Amino acid sequence: MTNWIDAALALTPESRLFIDGEFRPAADGGTFDSFAPRDGSLISAVSAAAQVDVDAAVAAASRAFEGGVWSRADRRHRQRVLMRLADLMLENLDELALLESLDSGHPISDARNVDVPNAARTIRWYAEALDKVYDEIAPTPENALALVRREPLGVIGAVVPWNYPLIITAWKIGPALAAGNSVVVKPAENTSLSTLRFAALAAEAGVPEGVLSVVSGLGAVAGQALGRHPLVDKITFTGSPAVGKRFLTYAGESNGKQVSLELGGKSAQLVLADTEDLTACASSVAWGIFYNAGQTCHGGSRLIVDEAVHDELVSEVVRVGESLVLGDPLDEATQIGTIVSQVQLDRVLDYVDVARAEGATVHGGRRVHPNGLDDGFYVEPTVFDGVDNSGRIGQEEIFGPALAVTTVNGVEEGVRVVNYSQYGLAASVWTSNVTAAHRVARDIRAGTVWVNTFDVADIITPFGGFKQSGSGRDRSLHALDSYTALKTTWIDLG
Ligand code: NDP
Hints:
Elements: H1 4-9, E1 17-19, E2 22-24, E3 31-36, E4 41-47, H2 51-67, H3 75-91, H4 93-104, H5 108-129, E5 136-137, E6 144-152, E7 155-159, H6 165-178, E8 182-186, H7 193-205, E9 212-214, H8 219-228, E10 234-238, H9 241-253, E11 258-262, E12 268-271, H10 278-290, E13 302-306, H11 310-323, H12 342-357, E14 361-363, E15 367-368, E16 378-379, E17 382-385, H13 392-395, E18 402-408, H14 411-419, E19 423-424, E20 426-430, H15 434-443, E21 448-451, E22 466-467, E23 470-471, H16 476-482, E24 484-492
Parallel strand pairs: 7-8, 7-10, 8-9, 10-11, 12-13, 12-20, 13-18, 17-18, 20-21
Antiparallel strand pairs: 1-2, 3-4, 5-6, 6-24, 11-23, 14-17, 15-16, 19-22
Helix pairs in contact: 2-8, 3-5, 3-7, 4-5, 4-7, 5-6, 6-16, 10-11
């Protein structure tokens, strides 16, 4: 068994910007500190891109695009390179997983078994798709031939959050590179290291200079510079609604670039009175919110439960929460790791106070210090029972291991409460009535609705939100499409 703590001590992560095929410090030498949430220790100073660095990355991306080295390369060549990248990710599984776990607080077992394989599968899936997607011929009159082709958009700016750094980066880079675009990635400050390593692997796999750059840095500087850049054709963003809306402003005030937004949610798990297996349901509800310490955009943070099954279900969810192994992310036995940062920890703990002030009964909700890791960011799985869905706890995204429980009476009220939210990313319904399942799935306004399960998904299905959860979709062939522009070539046949 690997000693991950020793392995972490032996790590010397690359922490410089990756621009035009090489690692380099920021032009002005600027850095910011990246901390390990497991114990609050400094991992590394990371280069902080300024405007001039973002300009250099975008110029390189644009040059590469115009030159055609990737954008006009045979798609089988792009396919081979991306397949090689996916292979390299798996060959470097332990290192990538360790970087991800150390930087983000994901349990190492999840990083090894879920994050890195999932990200690699994403890259491979889009590579495989490349010679299976056809363009169109329009039904013109006989004297003409009109070809409708998908062409790469140009330069893509990908601004990524800290909750699933590699997976979300792969969701964006995979289809964007497969389609022939150049990409400049701005990872989250908290979690740049796995993305920088990923860039080195991409270069090793044969992604040409300039086609993929990584500008680690501060959102307000590097993120904004990318959002306002006149040579960026599209921004793909995942993060908070406040920052997502800024990208719309940046686009409007610069070149009107396309903006695709995934802005989180307050996803509801609706449990109807006829649910047969409440034990299985409780386990799914608990994992639906507590996985990754609740830092999941589609995390099932609201439990909307029929009063007939409330008591039995909630006590079982609390029991499952208490049974999960909360601990050091570098311990392979750990099931729930840390909150990502001190800022996010404070935010989560503030919400525990808000829940009490709003009259909820609180189970868990304390900061804890497992294994003597006094400065780590650990919070117990938390259940707020008796929540008024229209209050702050029912409406605001907490992004921690906190479940808000609201009791309803019947299907209609349940669906009404589920839909009473500014968000619409995901939801689930538990019932043994197939008609009710279809009706509820139809009536819930969310990008994904699960029936008798939660958070099962794959690259094959689109992912994104209704309402203020955003626009655009990651994953599936729809995402590949979204990194292309349609071009019509109309030929006169005489
Ligand atoms: P942000 O939305 O601030 O961060 C997402 C990305 O945007 C990061 O790369 C960030 O950079 C960048 N960014 C921040 N400010 C700007 C700006 N002014 N211009 C351009 N880019 C910017 O999320 P937070 O990290 O602040 O988390 C706050 C809340 O957002 C969470 O509590 C959660 O509710 C929600 N969230 C939702 C996520 C989702 O998956 N939908 C993911 C993460 C958070 P930097 O890291 O340097 O700040």
